[in-house]
Amino acid sequence: MRVDIISIFPEYFAPLDVSLIGKARERGILDVRLHQLRDWAHDVHRTVDDTPYGGGPGMVMKPDPWGEAIDAVLASGEAPPRIVVPTPSGVPFTQRLAMEYAAEPWLLFTPARYEGIDSRVMAEYGTRTRVEEVSVGDYVLAGGEAAVLVMIEAVGRLLPGVLGNACSAVDDSFAPGAMENLLEGPVYTKPPDWRGREVPEILLSGHHGKIARWRRDEALRRTARNRPELLAALDPEGLDKHDLKI
Ligand code: SAM
To answer: Where does S-adenosyl-L-methionine bind (predicted)?
Structure first.
């Protein structure tokens, strides 16, 4: 998969050299290309922002450098990439969206600073390719770079060959299928007794059916405790008699 990122802080993406994503890049599974937005600003100060029309605090990112930068990225490939615009006013980034992105050949992320990018830019590219405003949560970051790191990590680990055990993504919280709208329950490893706290006996029993049932019960309990609104969204068709007792 190819991923392009246009930002005024390309150095922010150094963590993409590390761990699973770093290895995926080394192995050629993920091809990340960073671009400095200011390379397309032509005044002596390489200005990328200006005051907002209509007044108000803060600055808005100018359309010209963004337009030239996106044109240059689009011209470097064949079919245009899907463009992901991080913004707190976007649609929520979910595991489902991460899976959708993981199936794309090419993504372009446009993390902004200040009050965001002049709205005409994405209106323009929306006529040529799929453009989406996406939020990583109901809070406001100083810039979109951290949001892009979050999205690339979520998408990158779903690419074939990135996770050592592909099954771990299937059992993750939110994974479509049995875990849709469910949070994963607690996990344990050796030793069986740590500071007098024992691993639940069922996990040592070797009884796969009972362990699966216990894990689902724990997932239901944790979801009820931490995210009750997700429980309400569970598909009743996917519930069994035992689920309903939890
Ligand atoms: N005034 C904007 C608003 O209230 O929607 C916030 C602008 S924020 C200071 C600057 C940039 O950070 C945004 O344009 C976006 O790129 C990024 N950003 C901030 N919070 C985000 C979030 N929750 N999800 C995705 N991107 C975010």
So the answer is: 136-141
Ligand 1 centroid from CA 94, angstroms: 17
Would you call 124 exposed, middle or buried from its count of C-beta atoms within 10 A (0-12, 13-18, 19+)?
Answer: middle
Mean pLDDT of 187-202: 98
Instruction: Tell how far the Cα of 87 is from the centroid of ligand 1, in angstroms.
Output: 4
Catalytic residues: 88, 115, 157, 172
Which residue in 79, 75, 82 sits closest to 125, CA to CA? Answer: 82
The protein residue with its alpha carbon nearest to ligand 1, atom 11, reads 143
∠ CA 4-136-24 to the nearest 5 degrees? 40
Sign of the torsion formed by the C-alpha atoms of 109, 110, 115 and 118: negative
The CATH number given to whatever domain includes residue 195 is 1.10.1270.20
- The C-alpha atoms of residue 192 and residue 189 are separated, in whole angstroms, by 7
Both 208 and 151 in a single domain? no
Prediction pTM value: 0.95
